[in-house]
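From the pipeline queue, job 12 of 40. The input is one protein chain; the requested action is below.

Action: predict structure.
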Amino acid sequence: MSIQIPGLTEVVIPAAITVHLGAPDEPAENVTVSFLDYIKNVASSELYPTWPENALRANIYAINSIALNRVFTEWYRSQGYNFDITNTTQYDQAFVPNRGIFGNISVIADELFDSYITREGQLEPLFAAFCDGRITQCNGMFQWGSVDLAEQGYTPYEILQYYYGDNINIQTDTPLEEAYVTYPGTPLKYGDNNPYVLMVQFSLNIISENYPAIPKIPYPVGTFDDATQSAVEEFQRIFNFPVTGIVDSSTWYGIRRIYSAVARLAELTSQGLIISELPEFTPEPVEGEATARVQVVQYFLNVLSAYYNTIPAVDINGILNTQTRTAIMEFQKTMRLPITGIVDEQTYSTMYNSVAGILATVPPTSIALPSILWPGVVYRPGSEGPGVYIIQQYLAYISSILEGITTVEPDGIYGPQTEQSVREFQEFFGIDPTGIVDRYTWERIVLIYRNLRFGTNRNTGQFPGSTVGEQ
């Protein structure tokens, strides 16, 4: 009998799922229930049985998908926890032990529990975030909104497309397997040959797209050979594991965790979280339009959302709207900051430092930067902060394409290397080589970056943008 490994060959429905009755770090009881009983419990806790059937079906697809995403990615187990999911809605979805189950919801769950949502071309179940849409809002499905759509005649699939986009599929008839964790139980080492080695090889090759220091493993077939050992050692070196060349449980789950984060970051990039056109330059601010600071915050939130499922992605439109405030509050919750929805100095600094830490190990070619408006600051040697960091990220990519422009290491400090790179950029494009980034140089850097990184065409699904000015 062939061995099926989640994350490599197919998604499977586990026979059971372990639920932590509290927040992840909160001391609380773990309960293990059958997967079907879990779905029925969550659906009865989250939904009203009087809702239209199509709304119930759409929501149960989302409930299934969230649960399978947590199991498939081993989101909590890869961080050292001994459970699959929590019952805290801040992180996951509601589960109430020993609660009653609504009859019509039970019938629908019996039919749909082996179905889930994916993005087109992806294997991983979608983390299909949802909220009530009245008291709380999120970057996902509004439950009461799904009721309104169902009453208008929308099918379950059309409701899901309305909230998650057109590029989704519903996977059905997913096979049922025994409960599992993916770690094989014993370390993988040189000479081993099994499907678990193949999963490591597959994952490391994906991770190497964003961490090119990890050598590619050619023709992975499940044999732990020299190339695999070299890739494992480099992974361990980059992510501060003991460099043994052996995949023990800590390295295994480290690979799973980084693979999941890289896959999410790649998905954000592919969706084109970029404002499509650099706005026309206006001499005076225009009331009510986008600001550069909000754009930066929104970009930072999107990067962080790839690594923290609690933080939703947002549109990068420069407008401090409800969606952005909700994401800011989720960031503050995650980082244990005062939950205000306001980006004060502490929140901005924590956000910037978190993003800088993430992107420090990601090559410029793997990053999709938004077209950020000039912040109204002239940057020169000695300047520090997020504005300098953004300049450096732009220039790092530009220098990887155009010869004669010095490569910079983004660190948020406008030092000699950054000054030289700016001067060379200015000379290359016929700008007075002052080594200072004023408004004109900033806008030229953004424009050249956009043309080199994306050409003149929008990515499929890319945020369409708007004509914006300074505020």
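Job complete. The first strand starts at residue 13 and ends at 14.
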